[in-house]
Amino acid sequence: MSVGSASLIGMPARWSAESVLDLAPDESSRRSAAGLGRPAPWTGTGVAGDVLWGLCAGSGKNPYQTVVDLAGPAYRCSCPSRKFPCKHALGLLLNWANGSVPEAGAPADFARAWLDDRRARAEKAEKPFARTVPADSPLPTDSGPVKDEAAASRRAQQRAQRVASGLAELQSWLRDQVRVGLSATPAHGHANEIAARMVDAQAPGVAGVLRGLSAVPVSGEGWPGRLLGEYAQLHLLVRAHERLDSLPPELAATVRSRVGYPTSRADVLTRPAVTDHWAVLGLRDLVEGNVPGRRVWLRGRDSGQWAMLLTFAAPNGFGGAGGWQDPDTARLRPGTELHATLHYYPGQPSLRAAMGERHAQPAPANRPVPAGDVDALLAGYAAGLAQDPWLTLWPALLAGTPVAPGRGDRWHLIDQAGVALPVAERESLWTLLSVSGGRPVTVAGEWQPDGLLPLTVWHGDRAVAL
Q: Between the CA of residue 246 and those of 162, 242, 252, 259, what are the distances in Å?
């Protein structure tokens, strides 16, 4: 759609306020958006075709410039928030939903500039790679892009050498930490320098783990044991990488993914396919890293298989230009079901997947039925650890009663057998308790070493994001 033709197409059907708030990344964003879903903080609002824009008064001198592409949806806001959509985008959508945004002939200049930039980047991404072929060379036998296999092999070999060199430095660093003693570990940033070295060595997976170590010395009682455990896991990964060629193929693929070797989506889509009706059970926005991302958990109705879809903000994305590398994944919402074909990434256990062919649009789904209790969840996680010793995340779907902490205690989810599972602290746990009302509820989330992180709770057949 061209911007100039927006007014000729007509206005899209307005969303409901509930549909808008379903886009919120967390409960605090929902509450903040409700306060901005009125005309008072806004000036210069308008809508033309699929483009929505406005200026929202904030704490700074200049108002925040907010734009929404309703066809994506995609968002852009000049505010510093790393949540997406931010509260301003949600507030603008709420104003549009209740009819407070006037129609306009063309977008404001800042909205048009964002749209032009997005269009230019999209057109650039669609251009196929082409290599100049000498006139006297034989033409390729197909019409696809020419791929220099020798150059690709050289690049792969060079990367492997850089990774091996970097991991050797990491091994020396780990020995130094243990030899000097953990009591000498600084409270903040002790692993930042070696993490930066891993980035240079093209081992981003290892770099991410090292950046996370900075928080361990200030994580409370018992931190030396936790830090030593993290060091041991990194040591194990380095030794596994040294033996990469002799490992079983699936374990080797797991080691490569943990180190941070890339796997192209095109290669994943050539792997065996699993077609099913996939229930969307939970999503989590990832804002800790340099590039914001979103993780979506699915479970097959017929196969019973779990799948995790992962997408990241597109270049110059949220906070800058707005958009996802995979908009189809970003639009999925808990409480819906998708008939689609998925392809799993190499590695074990099989969790991460890429979406292939979609056979229908997402449709409302009934409340999912858990396949087991707490003991079954922990047994599944143990089996996953046997395949991937660095596994720190496992999908969970349980029926249980949430129990608020007493003095000096923590939250728990108690299943029908009376087994209590610790729950990781987060702001939305009171929402979980209010939906439960002291009765058993179905909860989907992520099991981590520090407890269950609830992502979705069902009130009847309605999914409530936490």
A: 20, 9, 8, 17
Rounded CA separation 89/79 (Å): 10
* CA dihedral angle for residue 113, residue 115, residue 119, residue 121, rounded to 10 degrees: 60
Could you give the 3-state DSSP secondary structure of residue 294? strand
**Taking residues 381-389, what's their average pLDDT?**
95
CA distance 457 to 335: 10
Instruction: Please identify which residue in the block is written with the tokens 């930039």.
Output: 117
49 φ, ψ to 5°?
Answer: 60, -125
Please count the other Cβ atoms lying within 10 Å of the Cβ belonging to residue 288: 11
* Cis, bond preceding 73 (omega within 30 deg of 0): yes
According to the model, what pLDDT value does residue 138 have? 43
Share of the chain above pLDDT 90, in %: 54
pLDDT tens track for 182-234: 887 887 788 989 999 998 899 999 999 999 898 888 888 889 999 999 999 99
Residues in the chain: 466
The DSSP element (H or E) to which 228 belongs, if any, is: helix 223-242
Could you give the CA distance from residue 100 to residue 45 in angstroms, rounded to a whole number?
Answer: 9
Tens of pLDDT along 348-381?
999 999 999 999 989 999 999 998 999 999 999 9
First-last CA distance in the chain = 35
Residue 453 is encoded by which pair of tokens?
């992180």
Cβ atoms within 10 Å of 301's Cβ, excluding its own? 14
Task: Please report, as a single letter, which amino acid is at residue 437.
Answer: G
Q: Which amino acid is at 50?
A: D
Residues sharing a CB contact under 8 Å with residue 378, sequence separation 6 or more, in sequence order: 447
* 3 state DSSP class of 455: strand
Could you tell me which residues come within 8 angstroms of residue 361 by beta carbon, excluding any fewer than 6 positions away?
A: none
> C-alpha 24: how far from its chain's center?
14
Among 21, 58, 59, 23, CA closest to 43: 58
